[in-house]
């Protein structure tokens, strides 16, 4: 059919074109509606879209492969909508968020209700529509409905085409992504692996689609805590893409960014350095291929800025982000996804710079815009609300932060489940709010759910899981419940031994806290070997003159004295000398802090 559309024989081409337009009219219409356009406007835009394609002879040269044709239509449609956005963004009024969300959902639900009956005898049309509906519901974070339509597409495709047909494979791939988004990681992994086996057999080991599935599997493996296996897989995929595709191909650049982010999230200094190097390389490739003003280039800058921000270089990050934000506002307007994404990253950087008033102003705008554009139940809106809540917490507004984060947890748990990684992070911050409001026991209750759930979802050795465990132990200690803190510290240190084998100073921080917990219970003899190890680690990594080394040695000597172990006269003199030096250092820091406060800095 696609070949007929591109043919020169006008009669055959007209008939085929009419059939194609009928087949794709509803998916295109639903896609446009999912971008927030009203009923009449979406109908007009759908008609204009097909008219534009026909007038420009855009079908000429399109691959007859059905999957390739669907991708062609989607790409052309996105470009068409961007062009329309550029023309209309300055004049087009926007309806309120509530009105937009209701009309969009009603439109999608109406389409979903009739597709099976209306197109029961047209499996090719039916599978396309179920795919579009699944994708649209996924974008609305309505994962139950998205899963239903993906399963319907898979069932229709398998019955009509067979299990190894590309349409059936595409349906199962969509279903696997939806399962992953709704926290069904084990089921998503199993289905992705099934899809990968089929793609290898049908498309080949080095096909672009096969490689994308391998990357998706690696991401899930990383989320489940299998970081070494995931990293190796991503590196293998990237090596194949750089050999088979171009180095500046979109897929290659995407995987390069995935690898960089994966390395960066592991927090190892060496891996973070490699991550920054990779994302700079990605930016250079993007600029060379796509130019300095292209969306792909801006995305690379956005990623780099986020990493610079978290690496303690917020000024450099801010400069990059303001460039990107100005260009995105000029190109797409204030209410485009790309603009909002950059605003979010900029606010994060300003928060790290201590410019909380500026950050909170941006976060407030983001929440308002996201609610208007996507509704409160969108994962995009929830992320903005969560960032706003944590910003309020950092600004010393725990009561307002608590209200914001409770709304995130209530809505997000219904969509994602209470044990989704994002929801566990929100619950952690809620615990911190309770502590700031003077209720450490309430904070403990939050963390008592968060810590075991995080271990199950992310793995015991994930750095974030270790941090959450240490927070729970610390809150136990703050409440004077040291006996309950002790087993938590034991678990934290055991995980840190494995996770931070190449970061001994970081491991020493957790060991030191464990030793402190034992001393609070007067288990001085048990604390001695732990504190001695801390002192040795700091001595070897930071040097004998570092205050942390001296503090660790003082603590070790203190435990020996309190345990009644004999110490030499020389050790006793060293103990008192260290005690005086550390007290003087502490007083100097307090004086410095008081001086800054007095000067208004």
Q: Percent range for helical residues? A: over 70%
What string gives the helices and strands in order?
Answer: HHHHHHHHHHHHHHHHHHHHHHHHHHH
On the 0 to 100 scale, the average pLDDT is 82
Unreliable parts: 1-13, 60-68, 89-104, 596-601
Structure, explained:
The protein has 601 residues and is mostly helical. Helices cover 81% and strands 0% of the residues. It has 27 helices and no strands. Helix 14 runs parallel beside helix 16. It is elongated. The N terminus and C terminus are likely disordered.
Give me a quick take on this structure:
The chain has helices spanning 2-5, 10-34, 39-55, 66-88, 97-118, 123-139, 143-161, 166-181, 185-202, 208-223, 227-244, 250-265, 269-290, 295-310, 314-332, 337-352, 356-374, 379-394, 398-416, 421-436, 440-458, 463-478, 482-499, 504-520, 524-542, 547-562, 569-598.
Short key terms for the protein model shown above:
single chain, 601 residues, disordered N terminus, disordered C terminus
Topology:
Elements: H1 2-5, H2 10-34, H3 39-55, H4 66-88, H5 97-118, H6 123-139, H7 143-161, H8 166-181, H9 185-202, H10 208-223, H11 227-244, H12 250-265, H13 269-290, H14 295-310, H15 314-332, H16 337-352, H17 356-374, H18 379-394, H19 398-416, H20 421-436, H21 440-458, H22 463-478, H23 482-499, H24 504-520, H25 524-542, H26 547-562, H27 569-598
Helix pairs in contact: 2-3, 2-5, 2-6, 5-6, 5-17, 6-7, 6-8, 7-8, 8-9, 9-10, 10-11, 10-12, 11-12, 12-13, 12-14, 13-14, 14-15, 14-16, 15-16, 16-17, 17-18, 18-19, 18-20, 19-20, 20-21, 21-22, 22-23, 23-24, 24-25, 25-26, 26-27
């Amino acid at each position: 059919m696609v070949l007929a559309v591109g043919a020169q024989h006008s009669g055959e081409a007209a008939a085929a074109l009419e059939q194609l337009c009928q087949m794709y009219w509803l998916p295109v219409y639903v896609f446009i509606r999912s971008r927030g356009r009203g009923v009449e406007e979406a109908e007009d835009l759908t008609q204009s879209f097909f008219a534009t394609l026909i007038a420009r002879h855009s079908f000429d040269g399109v691959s007859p492969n059905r999957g390739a044709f669907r991708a062609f239509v989607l790409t052309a449609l996105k470009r068409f909508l961007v062009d329309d956005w550029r023309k209309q963004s300055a004049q087009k009024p926007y309806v309120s968020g509530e009105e937009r969300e209701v009309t969009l959902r009603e439109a999608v639900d109406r389409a979903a209700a009739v597709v099976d009956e209306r197109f029961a005898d047209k499996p090719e049309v039916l599978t396309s529509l179920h795919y579009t509906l699944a994708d649209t519901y996924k974008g609305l974070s309505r994962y139950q409905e998205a899963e239903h339509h993906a399963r319907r597409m898979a069932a229709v495709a398998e019955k009509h085409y067979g299990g190894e047909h590309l349409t059936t494979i595409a349906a199962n791939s969509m279903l696997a992504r939806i399962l992953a988004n709704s926290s069904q990681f084990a089921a998503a992994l199993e289905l992705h692996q099934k899809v990968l086996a089929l793609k290898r057999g049908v498309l080949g080991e080095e096909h672009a689609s096969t490689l994308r599935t391998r990357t998706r599997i690696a991401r899930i493996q990383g989320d489940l805590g299998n970081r070494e296996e995931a990293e190796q897989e991503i590196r293998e995929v990237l090596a194949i893409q750089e050999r088979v595709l171009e180095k500046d191909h979109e897929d290659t650049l995407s995987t390069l960014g995935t690898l960089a982010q994966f390395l960066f999230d592991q927090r190892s200094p060496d891996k973070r350095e490699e991550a920054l190097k990779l994302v700079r390389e990605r930016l250079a490739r993007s600029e060379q291929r796509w130019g300095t003003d292209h969306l792909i280039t801006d995305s690379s800058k956005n990623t780099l800025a986020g990493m610079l921000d978290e690496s303690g270089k917020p000024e450099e990050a801010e400069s990059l982000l303001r460039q990107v934000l100005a260009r995105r506002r000029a190109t797409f307007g204030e209410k485009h996804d790309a603009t909002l994404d950059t605003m979010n990253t900029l606010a994060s950087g300003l928060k790290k710079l201590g410019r909380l008033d500026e950050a909170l102003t941006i976060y407030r705008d983001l929440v308002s815009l996201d609610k208007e554009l996507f509704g409160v139940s969108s994962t995009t809106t929830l992320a903005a609300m969560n960032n706003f809540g944590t910003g309020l917490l950092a600004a010393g507004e725990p009561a307002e932060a608590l209200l914001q984060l409770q709304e995130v947890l209530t809505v997000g748990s219904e969509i994602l489940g209470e044990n989704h990684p994002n929801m566990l992070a929100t619950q952690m911050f809620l615990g911190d709010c309770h502590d700031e409001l003077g209720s450490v026991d309430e904070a403990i209750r939050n963390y008592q759910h968060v810590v075991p759930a995080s271990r199950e979802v992310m793995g015991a050795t994930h750095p974030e899981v270790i941090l959450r465990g240490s927070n729970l132990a610390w809150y136990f200690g703050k409440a004077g419940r040291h006996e309950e803190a002790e087993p938590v510290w034991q678990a934290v240190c055991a995980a840190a031994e494995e996770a931070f084998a190449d970061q001994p100073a970081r491991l020493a921080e957790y060991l030191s806290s464990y030793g402190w917990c034992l001393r609070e219970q007067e288990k001085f003899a048990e604390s001695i070997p732990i504190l001695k190890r801390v002192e040795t680690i700091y001595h070897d990594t930071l040097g004998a003159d570092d205050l942390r080394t001296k503090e660790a040695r003082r603590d070790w000597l203190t435990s020996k004295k309190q345990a009644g172990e004999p110490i030499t006269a020389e050790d006793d003199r060293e103990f008192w000398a260290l005690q005086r030096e550390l007290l003087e250092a502490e007083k100097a820091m307090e004086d410095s802090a008081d001086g800054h406060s007095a000067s208004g800095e």
